[in-house]
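Backbone-to-sequence.
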């Protein structure tokens, strides 16, 4: 999820979305990076009873952090780009990188009736 700010509100929204997935069970430990917004967001979710009080937060830059590992390929591509001029440009570029990564990892089933190009055009709302 891309957000303009990495603040407490964005962190709470991220955790609520991640924890509401139907395949997830309540975690024992939440491993996050060193973003200072995460601990207060988790504390607020505990106070609101969206998270159990027993959940431990572990702030480690990369240790067993699936989220960090999943988007490291994006960092590898975007770091040499020297940033984006606008939030919209960043959002569109990252969506394209994610789409191609999903194709490469075979996370998308494309029916034989449509080609990869047609799928991408449909995904991004481009005219054929």
């Amino acid at each position: 999820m891309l957000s303009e700010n990495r603040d407490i509100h964005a962190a709470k929204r991220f955790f609520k979305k991640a924890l509401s997935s139907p395949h997830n069970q309540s975690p024992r430990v939440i491993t996050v990076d060193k973003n200072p917004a995460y601990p207060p967001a988790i504390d607020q979710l505990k106070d609101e009873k969206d998270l159990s009080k027993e959940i431990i937060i572990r702030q480690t830059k990369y240790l067993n952090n699936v989220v960090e590992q999943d988007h490291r390929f994006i960092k590898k591509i975007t770091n040499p780009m020297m940033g984006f001029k606008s939030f919209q440009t960043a959002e569109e570029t990252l969506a394209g990188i994610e789409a191609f990564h999903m194709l490469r990892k075979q996370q998308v089933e494309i029916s034989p009736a449509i080609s990869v190009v047609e799928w991408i055009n449909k995904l991004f709302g481009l005219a054929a």
